[in-house]
């Protein structure tokens, strides 16, 4: 009898440990699953010029592997007995452990000019694919094991999905705040490998516990076939998972294109995405689903206003767009959670949900860049987010008749004038504000009818996206590295090259009378004569006795800088995007190269990597002028990059950085970098005069560095230039960590950098 009592006590003690053991293991599994994503993507980023598309493709890859992991979990749960399922999963974990720690192979070559996405997916598959696959199985599989333990909560294991996503959420928050700033990339990989081994041991222990507590015969028994899932229901699950997943990729690319491809900008949207799962897969969703449905129309109306009039500062704009994304994900995932099946279909539910996530990622990360020449997927997905609302589950003919007049009226008022390219740029500010306010009011007033709401939002957002006062669109080209838009001014006198939202070059193509301009084009935007870059080129010539033998310029744009070259000087441009090269070489678009340097040498590839491989004589001047929308790729502005540039410079060579940026103050970073590497640093923020502004000259911020202060004599003698002092609170960026957030805050506060 005493033995029976002891056995019962042991059983009760084991039962008390089951829930925390499963929750803790799922937490660790999710933490590893989502910490490895920014960790490895950051390792890969320098190979692709810091493009925001790297994270988009990474999310597609990780979602696809997650689907494969869910598929294996479903097979193990439905096709194998418990004992065999545990054995197979442990074998997968053992195979994954063999390839640890994770690292980018030194033998992996440079990315190709075409099919860059395929090259990148291959790199991910070879290096991180198997470990990520092994960890991705755990979410649904461990929940299914828990459902067989006989625990008091085993009948509804979905709450463990919230615990799993809490681990994911904390991993994403910890990475940019704790992990990236304080732990190097190689140390991160070793720690992750250690965490994986601990996880494998915990999985083995949970397998043993499940075998011990499961009903008799369950170890060998294959579970009975669950109730079939209706095709319509499964397709709705796929759609409800598709929209927020695709929107996650689109909004992340949209935000990071204008700022920087940096982990903290990757993890913000993804953290919000995961937080929605934590909140909706509770026994009682928090906040209530009805509250999310109520607030969504107001946020969508604000998105229309922001798109038409992008006047908010960056932090406020990002906050609004992330809020709209968060609520859209809450609505879609709330609908998913409300329709979740019984535990018998748990793994099937996760499989369908993961399929929708993968399809969404593929659409936004791979198909959209190939289909659209603009970022059209972002507004399309915002409209699709409203299609997730319960009122659009099965719209009737009566619903359509009721919504059509309202939506048609909004289309005639807003969308039609934009589609017909009417001269809206002539509207007064007051009229424009009134029209935007009317659009916002119409969207809000339509909120009582989900179909009317979606239609009204669609036509007003189309009008807002297409509204471009003062510009006549000529052409839009999209590549792996972003969207390049060529547009003319409304008066036809200037042609511009935009990348994202930033002008990267301008050329006067007609005079005031409308006659075409012939002869050598005048460099404008950041490259005007008398501007900071022109000063640096003059200083390099002075240091070289009147000429520059060799120049290396990272970043091509329209080729404006080439018109500063003189006969007998060897200039080489390094440009990562083949589309930019084609645009710059086409005289029908921009004539800088054709008129100034028709035989200009251009090396296609990431500037840092190609410069490192180049077997060339030392340069007298290196100009780093590579932009992704309004931001310099971070890997071109680190101590490791500075050392490479310094090694490629001649004894009296100069190193210049073009650091004009609306969102980040980068001059203090340049001061910290130059000082850390023993270089003298000077800077100038140049402002054109009224005549220059009329020719589209722009403000230009440039930092220049030299080994010997004497080589900057002409710069030092110009009062417009300031010698930079390193600021104690600004650390030099490295490949392991760059404090992008601090640079954003400095710009937001408008603080001036220190000088000697």
Automatic annotation (TrEMBL):
Keywords tagged on the record: Membrane, Polyamine biosynthesis, Transmembrane, Transmembrane helix
Membrane spanning residue stretches: 12-34, 54-73, 85-106, 118-137, 158-179, 191-214, 234-255, 261-281, 293-312, 349-369, 404-424, 430-446, 453-472
Listed CDD domains: AdoMet_MTases
SUPFAM superfamilies registered for this protein in UniProt: S-adenosyl-L-methionine-dependent methyltransferases (SSF53335)
Gene3D superfamilies per the UniProt record, alphabetical: Vaccinia Virus protein VP39
GO BP field: polyamine biosynthetic process
Protein name, UniProt field: Spermidine synthase
UniProt organism field: Siculibacillus lacustris
């Amino acid at each position: 009898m005493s033995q029976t009592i002891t056995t019962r006590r042991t059983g009760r003690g084991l039962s008390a440990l089951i829930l925390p053991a499963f929750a803790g293991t799922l937490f660790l599994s999710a933490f590893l699953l989502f910490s490895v994503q920014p960790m490895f993507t950051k390792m890969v980023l320098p190979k692709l010029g810091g493009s925001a598309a790297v994270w988009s493709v990474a999310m597609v890859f990780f979602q696809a592997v997650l689907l494969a992991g869910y598929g294996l979990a479903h097979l193990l749960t439905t096709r194998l007995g418990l004992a065999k399922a545990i054995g197979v999963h442990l074998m997968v974990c053992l195979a994954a452990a063999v390839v640890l720690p994770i690292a980018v192979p030194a033998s992996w070559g440079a990315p190709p000019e075409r099919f860059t996405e395929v090259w990148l997916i291959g790199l991910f598959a070879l290096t991180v694919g198997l470990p990520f696959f092994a960890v991705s199985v755990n979410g649904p599989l461990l929940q299914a094991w828990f459902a067989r333990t006989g625990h008091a909560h085993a009948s509804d294991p979905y709450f463990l999905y919230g615990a799993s996503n809490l681990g994911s959420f904390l991993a994403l928050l910890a990475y940019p705040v704790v992990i990236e700033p304080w732990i190097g990339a190689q140390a991160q990989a070793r720690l992750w490998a250690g965490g994986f081994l601990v996880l494998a041991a915990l999985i083995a222990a949970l397998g043993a516990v499940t075998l011990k507590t499961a009903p008799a015969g369950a170890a060998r028994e294959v579970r009975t076939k669950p109730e079939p899932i209706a095709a319509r229901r499964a397709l709705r699950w796929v759609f409800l998972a598709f929209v927020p997943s695709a929107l996650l990729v689109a909004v992340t690319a949209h935000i990071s294109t204008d700022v920087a491809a940096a982990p903290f900008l990757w993890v913000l949207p993804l953290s919000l995405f995961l937080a929605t799962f934590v909140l909706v897969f509770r026994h009682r969703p928090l906040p209530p689903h009805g509250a999310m449905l109520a607030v969504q129309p107001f946020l969508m109306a604000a998105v229309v206003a922001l798109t038409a009039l992008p006047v908010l500062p960056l932090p406020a704009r990002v906050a609004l767009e992330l809020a709209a994304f968060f609520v859209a994900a809450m609505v879609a995932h709330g609908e998913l959670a409300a329709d979740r099946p019984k535990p018998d279909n748990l793994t099937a539910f996760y499989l369908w949900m993961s399929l929708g996530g993968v399809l969404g990622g593929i659409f936004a990360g791979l198909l959209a860049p190939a289909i659209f020449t603009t970022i059209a997927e972002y507004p399309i997905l915002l409209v699709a987010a409203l299609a997730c609302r319960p009122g659009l589950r099965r719209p009737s003919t009566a619903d359509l008749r009721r919504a059509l007049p309202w939506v048609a009226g909004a289309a005639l008022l807003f969308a039609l004038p934009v589609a017909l390219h009417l001269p809206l740029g002539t509207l007064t500010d007051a009229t424009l504000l009134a029209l935007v306010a009317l659009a916002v009011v119409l969207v809000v007033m339509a909120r009582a009818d989900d179909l009317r709401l979606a239609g009204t939002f669609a036509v007003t957002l189309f009008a807002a996206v297409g509204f471009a006062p003062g510009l006549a669109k000529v052409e839009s080209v999209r590549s792996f590295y972003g969207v390049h838009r060529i547009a003319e001014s409304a008066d036809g006198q200037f042609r511009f090259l935009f990348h994202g939202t930033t002008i990267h070059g301008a050329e006067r193509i007609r005079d005031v009378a409308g006659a075409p301009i012939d002869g050598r084009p005048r460099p404008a935007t950041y490259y005007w004569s008398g501007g900071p870059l022109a000063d640096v080129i003059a200083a390099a010539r002075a240091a070289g006795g009147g000429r520059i033998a060799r120049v290396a310029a990272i970043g091509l744009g329209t080729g404006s800088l080439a018109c500063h070259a003189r006969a007998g000087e060897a200039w080489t441009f390094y440009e990562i995007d083949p589309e930019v090269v084609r645009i710059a070489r086409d005289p029908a678009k921009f004539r800088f190269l054709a008129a100034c340097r028709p035989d200009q040498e251009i090396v296609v590839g990431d500037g840092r990597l190609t410069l490192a491989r180049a077997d060339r004589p030392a340069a007298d001047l290196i100009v780093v002028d590579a932009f992704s929308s309004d931001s310099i790729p971070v890997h071109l502005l680190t101590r490791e990059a500075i050392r490479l540039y310094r090694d490629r410079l001649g004894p009296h060579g100069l190193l210049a950085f073009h650091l004009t940026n609306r969102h980040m103050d980068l001059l203090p970073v340049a001061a910290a970098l130059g000082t850390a590497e023993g270089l003298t640093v000077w800077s100038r923020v140049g402002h054109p005069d009224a005549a220059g502004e009329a020719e589209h000259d722009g403000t230009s911020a440039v930092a220049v560095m030299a080994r010997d202060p004497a080589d900057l004599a002409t710069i030092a003698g110009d009062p417009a230039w300031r010698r930079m002092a390193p600021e104690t609170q600004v650390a030099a960026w490295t490949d392991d960590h760059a404090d992008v957030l601090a640079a954003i805050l400095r710009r937001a506060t408008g603080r001036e950098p220190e000088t000697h």
